[in-house]
Amino acid sequence: MDIYEECPILENDDYIVRLIEQSDAKDLMSVYGDKFALPFFNSDNCNGSNFYCARQEDVENTVKYWLIEYHGNRGFVRFSVVDKKEGKVIGTIEMFRRESDDFYDGCGILRLDLKSACESFEVIYGILSLITEPFFEWFGCPVIATKAALYAVERIDALNRAGFVKSGEPLINRQQNMAYYDYWIIKKS
């Protein structure tokens, strides 16, 4: 299966995870315009962007860029996370297989951005439980890595419960001579 040709949908009782759509931009203003959510976003290797959007137009342009990366460049897949009870998009997930010359070569890099009201153990664990196993297969990676800084207590608890362990290895950007820390990994069983 080629994830860039056909993007499957995941669903459980609480969430739907599907390819982002331009119409999601309206709901995503509550994520990317949320200053309290900003510290939890992983913008490592994103050319200085922190993904904070002050205006609706900024969110719309960001979604357009993500769709170009998916359809045109095959750079990554950006999924929307729909809360079935709210009937709204509460965040996004970015996933791609990383090709590099560091510890994370061949790893799937997972970025989970949620509005701050959803930055809780229950929500994060529920999403991780839905996506982890299929993502190993869809992205052809033996390891998935995601970032959680020390202050992300609820996120770290959910990662631990889902089987992720703290990695002592930095993610390296050789072009910018940068090292990024606070990664957690899970290996395919």
Protein described:
The chain has 4 helices and 10 strands. Helix content is 29%, strand content 26%. β3 and β4 form a beta hairpin. By secondary structure, the protein is of the alpha+beta class.
Question: Which secondary structure elements does this structure contain, and how are they paired or packed?
Answer:
Layout: E1 10-11, E2 15-19, H1 25-32, H2 56-73, E3 77-83, E4 88-97, E5 108-114, H3 121-139, E6 143-147, H4 153-162, E7 165-166, E8 171-173, E9 178-180, E10 183-187
Parallel strand pairs: 5-6
Antiparallel strand pairs: 1-2, 2-3, 3-4, 4-5, 6-10, 7-10, 8-9
What are the main properties of this structure?
single chain, 189 residues, alpha+beta, eight-stranded mixed sheet, two-stranded antiparallel sheet, 29% helix
Spatial order of the strands in the main sheet?
1-2-3-4-5-6-10-7
Structural class: alpha+beta
Strand content: 25-35%
Q: How many strand segments?
A: 10
Taking Cα atoms only, what radius of gyration do you get, to the nearest Å? 15 Å
- Helical run tally: 4
Shape annotation? globular
What percent of residues adopt helix (DSSP H or I)? 25-40%
Order of helices and strands: EEHHEEEHEHEEEE
Mean pLDDT: 94
**Unreliably modeled segments:** none
Largest sheet: 8 strands, mixed
Question: How many angstroms separate the termini?
Answer: 20 Å
Short description:
With 189 residues, this protein is an alpha+beta fold. The chain has helices at 25-32, 56-73, 121-139, 153-162; strands spanning 10-11, 15-19, 77-83, 88-97, 108-114, 143-147, 165-166, 171-173, 178-180, 183-187.
